């Protein structure tokens, strides 16, 4: 079966269950933290797929990676979902399920992930102008999750990514386009 199809189905089921329990925002936060943990610690995926690590240890490891402080911290929806994944032998797909959940949640609540990368730091006034511009582009009712990063390799200017759209107003981007035009004309 398609590797993307299974995680998406589990993510849909998790979103429906979380909505039923009115915990979809909490689960969204947990899934975001979990994906950040997988990015920061590649060994986490190895531990989750290791057959010699017990189901209880995998569950505790994932809960910690999601930001739940055990034994005090607990989340009924998350715990039930972990038990389901263990029972069905799908715990190794938790990262893909978390990513699919985030995507589904954002689509349901009209949330856009906006990333601005600039060659130099941008002051708050400049960032607010960019946020307002992107907000007008996305339309009323759109919610924005905004991130800013500095990448000196852009040489100057900035790049904005909104979902699959990208606006590259950097000097490095313009130099790349110029190079491509010159190569295509020769």
Give the tags:
186 residues; alpha+beta; 4-stranded mixed sheet; 8 helices; 4 strands; 59% helix; elongated
Q: In a few lines, what is going on in this structure?
A:
With 186 residues, the protein is an alpha+beta fold. Helices cover 59% and strands 15% of the residues.
Overview of this protein structure:
- With 186 residues, the chain is α+β, with helices and mostly antiparallel strands.
- Helices cover 59% and strands 15% of the residues.
- The chain has helices spanning 5-20, 24-40, 43-49, 55-65, 76-88, 94-108, 124-138, 171-185, and strands at 111-118, 143-150, 157-162, 165-170.
- Helix 1 crosses helix 6.
- The mean pLDDT is 91.
Number of H/I helices: 8
Q: Based on helices, strands and strand pairing, what is the structural class?
A: alpha+beta
Low-confidence stretches: none
The biggest beta sheet reads: 4 strands, mixed
Q: What global shape is seen?
A: elongated
Q: What radius of gyration results from the CA coordinates?
A: 20 Å
Compute the number of strand runs.
4
Q: How would you spell out the order of helices and strands?
A: HHHHHHEHEEEH
Instruction: Give the helix level as a range of percent.
Output: 55-70%
Distance between the termini: 46 Å
- Report the β-strand fraction as a percent range: 15-25%
Q: Give the integer mean of the pLDDT values.
A: 91
Strand order of the largest sheet: 2-1-3-4
């Amino acid at each position: 079966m398609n590797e993307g199809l299974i995680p998406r189905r589990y993510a849909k089921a998790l979103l429906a269950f979380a909505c039923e329990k009115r915990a979809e925002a909490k689960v969204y936060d947990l899934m975001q933290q979990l994906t950040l943990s997988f990015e920061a610690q590649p060994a986490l995926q190895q531990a989750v797929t290791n057959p010699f690590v017990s189901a209880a240890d995998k569950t505790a490891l994932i809960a910690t990676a999601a930001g739940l402080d055990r034994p005090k911290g607990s989340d009924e929806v998350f715990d039930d979902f972990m038990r389901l994944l263990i029972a069905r032998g799908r715990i190794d797909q938790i990262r893909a399920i978390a990513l699919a959940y985030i995507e589904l949640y954002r689509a349901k609540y009209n949330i856009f992930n906006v990333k601005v990368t600039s060659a130099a730091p941008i002051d708050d006034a400049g960032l607010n102008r960019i946020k307002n511009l992107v907000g007008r582009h996305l339309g009323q009712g759109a919610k924005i999750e905004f991130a800013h990063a500095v990448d000196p390799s852009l040489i100057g200017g900035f790049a904005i990514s909104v979902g699959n759209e990208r606006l590259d107003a950097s000097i490095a981007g313009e130099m790349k386009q110029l190079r491509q035009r010159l190569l295509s004309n020769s």
